[in-house]
Amino acid sequence: MMRTPRRQRAFDLTDGRCIYCNVQLCDDENVVATGNGGFVPPPGQRFLCVTLMTPKAAGGRATAQNEVPACHVCSARKGILNHGAFIRKLDREWLERYELERSQISPEETWQRLERAVAQALPMFIVHAPPMPPRRDRRRIHDTRSRSF
């Protein structure tokens, strides 16, 4: 259970996942105490941060319809961007990483990957190819002469 109904409502909105990166969020009861009096989330989880889709700096209000659950990392990266602008920023970053990774592959590596893909797919095409009809049936199919009676 969360400490406040506001945090619980945000947590239940996405079943305890960050709305931006989909990482599992820890609720307030599952935190792990450290030796120095602090707390850390369980492995593979992050702390819950209730963030506003339209921030106050952009005219948003702290209402239930404007609040969404996010991890602290995404909330800090979002800053004063609204929800749509941050999603577009995440999409651009993902596309840039993908293009960078793709550009670092040499042409030889590209051909090797293509050859492996074709070698894996070729037996499937051969196995699933329809059988050819017997020779005499093929003649009948291709005989298009018109007959006059």
What does this structure look like?
It contains five helices and five strands; from the N terminus they run H-E-E-E-E-E-H-H-H-H. It is elongated. 11% of the residues are buried. With 149 residues, the chain is α+β, with helices and mostly antiparallel strands. The chain has helices at 5-13, 72-78, 83-103, 107-127, 135-142; strands at residues 24-26, 32-33, 39-40, 45-52, 67-71.
Summarize the structure.
With 149 residues, the chain is of the alpha+beta class.
Helix and strand topology:
Layout: H1 5-13, E1 24-26, E2 32-33, E3 39-40, E4 45-52, E5 67-71, H2 72-78, H3 83-103, H4 107-127, H5 135-142
Parallel strand pairs: 1-4
Antiparallel strand pairs: 2-3, 4-5
What characteristics describe this protein?
two-stranded antiparallel ribbon, elongated, 5 helices, 149 residues, 13% strand, 44% helix, three-stranded mixed β-sheet
* SS content category: alpha+beta
Estimate the mean pLDDT confidence: 81
H/E series: HEEEEEHHHH
Low-confidence stretches: none
